[in-house]
Amino acid sequence: MSNRAPEFPALKSLESDPTKYPLFERARRTEVVVAPGEVLWVPGGTPHFVENLEDSVAYAGNYIDASNYDKVCIIRERCSAGNQK
């Protein structure tokens, strides 16, 4: 099991190279407009793209609990050692 979050290509790359990413055309896409006072939760590791339709303030955070605590500790140790990957 890898202790790193998955890394995904940029959306533009996925859209522009169907021979390299042939399954991308089968991906489900959901578009959401978040109104003032609303919050959108995106599960960790989920590829997503954000486009702000107007000036916005965003908050992004990572949640740590018993289900991912060990993984977070390993990543933190690697970052402290200067090896962020």
Which short descriptors sum up this protein?
85 residues; mainly alpha
Protein topology:
Elements: H1 11-16, H2 69-80
What class would the helix/strand composition place it in? mainly alpha
Characterize the largest beta sheet: strand count, sense, and whether it forms a barrel. none
Rounded mean pLDDT is: 82
Please state the CA-atom Rg, rounded to the nearest Å.
17 Å
Question: What is the number of strand segments?
Answer: 0
Describe this structure in words.
The protein is built from 2 helices and no strands. The chain has helices spanning 11-16, 69-80. With 85 residues, the protein is mainly alpha-helical. Helices cover 21% and strands 0% of the residues.
Q: What's the gist of this structure?
A:
This protein has 85 residues and is mostly helical. It contains two helices and no strands.
